[in-house]
Amino acid sequence: MSDASILSDTDRTTGRDALRKNIQAALALSGAIRSTLGPRGLDKLLIDDTGRTLTTNDGVTVLETAKVEHPVAKMLINASSVQDKIARDGTTTTVLISAEMLNNAWHLVTQGVHPSMIARGYRMAEDFCRTELPTFTIAAAKDDLLVATKTALAGKSHEAMRIHLSRLSVEAAEIIIETQSGVTIADPTRVKVLSQSGGVVTDSQLVTGLVLAKKRILEAMPKKIGAGKVLLMNGGIERRSMASEMKLNVTSPGILQSFRDKEIDLL
Q1: Spatial CB neighbours of 209, under 8 Å, sequence gap ≥ 6
Q2: Cβ neighbours of residue 52 closer than 8 Å, sequence gap 6 or more
Q3: Rounded to whole angstroms, how far apart are CA atoms 35 and 25?
Q4: Helices (H), the chain
Q5: 13 in Cβ contact with 21 (< 8 Å)
Q6: Where are the domains of the chain?
Q7: pLDDT beneath 70, residues of the chain
Q8: Which CATH class is domain 15-132?
Q9: What pTM, to 2 d.p., does this model score?
Q10: What is the Cα–Cα distance from 79 to 57, expressed in whole angstroms?
């Protein structure tokens, strides 16, 4: 076996130089989406290799669309994606806070503090924040919930759509809240979003009951019905097919129409 080093063609960075480059990558990533933060955040125009454009100020969309190779930057993007899956908001804030924490850690490193001590200090700060955060809570009225929901939807749609979806979201949240043994809980599985093609987003509505996503069999059937009873049938109500394969020789147009009329009568 050759005595040549296996890593002879590999550049290695260690020590503070490696730390500095990792933190610089995190700061560069946060700087790219910093201007999108908040209800007055600016939009970003994204262009891919094929020339397609996308305008958005959603932090996680910008991050997931960008082609990032640096491992630390990828870690921040993954953290932002997890935040989006869990809370559906706070993606930009996640990256900005993480980058600022790394920047503050760099100042401590230059003063001689070991990285493991800095990490331990951040964990202590997290425990302290979890303890003190409940003392800052306030009782939110419905108007406060609407404002918070509209802020979460900022940049994802136009004003009329945000107002409509915010109202539906708050009403749905109020419906699924229940108190058990003095503890208020909410079961998000009790709300389901059914997507329908056609129309506009403002046509969306909240139905407090059972929704059956079925199409009308005949055009003569009503599109909407009010309160009524539920009929359980042991059998199908679709058009019946022939019991066996056969050919019909139609000699008069009236015969074909009689078949159609009989189908409607059976239905």
Answers
A1: none
A2: none
A3: 17
A4: 15-33, 59-65, 71-87, 91-110, 115-132, 142-152, 159-176, 253-266
A5: yes
A6: 15-132, 142-186
A7: 1-9, 39, 155-156, 239-240, 242-243
A8: mainly alpha
A9: 0.63
A10: 18
